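Pilot study result, target chain (184 residues):
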Amino acid sequence: MGGLSERLRAHGAIEGLLDLYDLAERHTHPTFAISAAEVRPYLENFVALNATAGFRLRAAEHECSCIIASYKLKCVVDRLDHPSQSAPAIIDYKTGNPKNAVKRQLETYAYVLGAGNYSPHELVLQFLKDGTVRDWQYTRQLHDDAEEWLLQRIVEIEGTRVFHRRRSRLCDYCGVSEHCYKVP
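Predicted structure:
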């Protein structure tokens, strides 16, 4: 997919991203519209975090799945990279408060990808609200811990079958939000 960092260094990158945002908003008709003025600081932080990284984008919004127990676990990963001088990475963008970030999300993605042909070694959370980053290495121990955690969640879900819905502005951007209304 090429060098995203080079394209982000180009003059007008933020304006180009705002144009893409406007286009997406016109085609999706979200319930909760977010103004370009509100989006701009997030895009500025995105560009600042990614313009000098020197990575090679492998995929964006990458769908992947694996079987755990007798269930299919499907994930949509924000970004997969092949950095120029380090191991493959999973990057997830967060627009909310960094204190609410959950490391398990990326560890679950890494677990699912590890079942296929992609072996990530670095997990990265990019907080677009304040321009900070949290990263850590994905180890064999984390892989085993993720599997144990996932199996425990399966047992918990099988036992309760209760899913609490929490409607938010983000529901419009969720690929599985329609399922929220099909459960008790």
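One observation from the pilot: The radius of gyration is 18 Å. A full batch analysis is planned for the follow-on phase.
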